[in-house]
Amino acid sequence: MAFELPALPYPADALEASKMSAQTFSFHHGKHHAAYVTNLNNLIKDTDLADKSLEEIVTATANDPAKAGIFNNAAQVWNHSFFWNCMKPGGGGQPTGALAEKINKDFGGFDKFVEQFKAAATTQFGSGWAWLVLDNGTLKVTKTANAANPIVDGATPLLTLDVWEHAYYLDFQNARPAYIENFLSQLVNWDFVAENLASA
């Protein structure tokens, strides 16, 4: 069965008040994400990967240079589908409940988490992603280049931020730190992150 471009979990203009424009979504979701889906379907058609789940394709092709094209497109489909859910209208602020307690325990406070997350997102050279993951029972901040995804290393993604330039250039130009700050203060869907932790 061919993969399909998932719908955004909110209208394309729902995050305008939080500086994420409908124009950004028209390109980022409607063109970039859509192209990864199309490319993936073309690459796996009539292969032994055609009936696999997205996660299975990502893990099966991660360390195979001959399948780098499949991995890059499959991982980017996964990463983007996950990323859209990491944001919501009226998001940002601080988490509560079990997630807040776990962040305090593993990072020594929410501010320490923010500091690490901002550093990872800012220092990822070129294209990539910043992540909050659960790794062997502990919350960690990590970063990956290009399409790479922590599931390949056995970690469970809880939150991600896309730091590819196309994710923010229309709204923030070259000011990646402002984009990162805006994501944390106005966009993060902590309910989604808490659900991911609870089901990990």
List the helices and strands and how they pair.
Layout: H1 22-44, H2 54-61, H3 68-85, H4 97-107, H5 110-123, E1 128-135, E2 138-145, E3 156-162, H6 169-172, H7 176-187, H8 190-199
Antiparallel strand pairs: 1-2, 1-3
Helix pairs in contact: 1-3, 2-3, 5-7
Describe this entry's structure for a reader.
- The two termini are 27 Å apart.
- This protein has helices at residues 22-44, 54-61, 68-85, 97-107, 110-123, 169-172, 176-187, 190-199; strands spanning 128-135, 138-145, 156-162.
- Helix content is 50%, strand content 12%.
- The chain has two domains: 21-85, Orthogonal Bundle (Helix Hairpins), CATH 1.10.287; 97-199, 3-Layer(bab) Sandwich (minor pseudopilin epsh fold), CATH 3.55.40.
- The chain is built from eight helices and three strands.
- The longest helix has 23 residues, at 22-44.
- By secondary structure, it is mainly alpha-helical.
- Helix 1 (22-44) runs antiparallel to helix 3 (68-85), helix 2 (54-61) crosses helix 3 and helix 5 (110-123) packs antiparallel against helix 7 (176-187).
Output the structural class.
mainly alpha
Q: At the third CATH level, what is the topology name of the largest domain?
A: minor pseudopilin epsh fold
Shape: globular
The appropriate CATH architecture of the largest domain is 3-Layer(bab) Sandwich
What's the CATH C level of the largest domain? Alpha Beta
CATH H-level homologous superfamily name of the largest domain? Iron/manganese superoxide dismutase, C-terminal domain
Order of helices and strands: HHHHHEEEHHH
Rounded radius of gyration (Å): 16 Å
Q: Number of helical segments?
A: 8
Nearest-integer average pLDDT: 97
Runs in which pLDDT lies below 50 for 5 or more consecutive residues are: none
Question: Going across the major beta sheet, what is the strand order?
Answer: 2-1-3
Question: Main β-sheet: number of strands, strand sense, barrel status?
Answer: 3 strands, antiparallel
- Overall number of strands: 3
Distance between the termini: 27 Å
Helix fraction by DSSP (H/I, runs of at least 4): 40-55%
Content of β-strand: 5-15%
